Amino acid sequence: MIIQIEPQSDVAIYKQITNQLIEGIARGHLRHGDSLPSVRAFAADLGVNMHTVNKSYHELEKRGIIKIVPKSGAVIEAQTKLLQGSPHAERIQHELKTVIAEALVLGMKTEQLEQELAMIMEDLKHNKQ
Amino acid sequence: MIIQIEPQSDVAIYKQITNQLIEGIARGHLRHGDSLPSVRAFAADLGVNMHTVNKSYHELEKRGIIKIVPKSGAVIEAQTKLLQGSPHAERIQHELKTVIAEALVLGMKTEQLEQELAMIMEDLKHNKQ
DNA sequence: GAATTGTTCTACACTTCATAGAACAAAATT
DNA sequence: AATTTTGTTCTATGAAGTGTAGAACAATTC
Fold first, then answer.
1. What is the pLDDT along chain A (129 residues), one digit of tens a residue?
2. Which residues of B touch A90 (CB under 8 A)?
3. Inter-helix orientation angle B110-126/B13-27, to 10°
4. Which residues of B touch A33 (CB under 8 A)?
5. N or C: which end of chain B has fewer CB within 10 A?
6. In chain C, which nucleotides are within 7 Å of a protein Cβ?
7. Residue at minimal CA–C1' distance from C5?
């Protein structure tokens, strides 16, 4: 599982880590039940501060993706059903609406969006890069 | 076109304005060719600083949604075709992938995502709230 | 001509981000 | 049993971002 940090990016480092870990899990590089590296080891590996990795882990825990076991480690959570009305589902829904609204405003059509969705699913599910 | 600012939100005010304007355009409350209020008038209306609205407008211009005519006003751009490979298209694509990856990790299924997409489209196109 | 426009500048307070170092107690390893 | 590693917590610092505030400018609009 390779993670690439771009220090010059306008995206915060802890968010880059968070997003790439999520994409790694989605691609199957990391599986449910797997443990993430310790914050110290991961930080040394990435060349960033320990606290930055720690922030990313807590972000992932807040989003229901990992569970941090005190004094032990961070474990990737099992997939839930994502029941409708749950905070996580509503958050996803809201984020999705924001992106789609912008896509529509920029002139993207319904079929184009459906095709885009299909391509992304294909990419995430079968393209392990 | 009513915009509601939540000062306590963890989302920056200028982003709240940006997102709600985009959603307003997607819903048809604002149409292509329409002018946005002057930064001073809008700021007074929202109860925020002029510079905050100005930042939102420049954010919208950077995203290709409005065009700021110096000394005149901000006009909503016409929809382009959003040709593949354009910076705007790639940005949308990237944002979409980020959200979808998280949805998958949380256990959302393909059909659920397609249904979600359809619901959002329906909401944006016909529900003018 | 007067008012309004977006732009630009300085200024201040506050928050966030990233780094750094230290110390702690619990867990894992040897 | 002793050592190492673990996440947590604390202080601290510098840089960047956010939001507000006021002023001035030139161009547009009325």
1. 789 999 989 999 999 999 999 999 999 999 999 999 999 999 999 999 999 999 999 999 999 999 999 888 899 998 887 778 899 999 999 999 999 999 999 999 999 999 999 999 999 988 766
2. none
3. 80
4. none
5. C
6. 4-9, 16-21, 25-28
7. B71
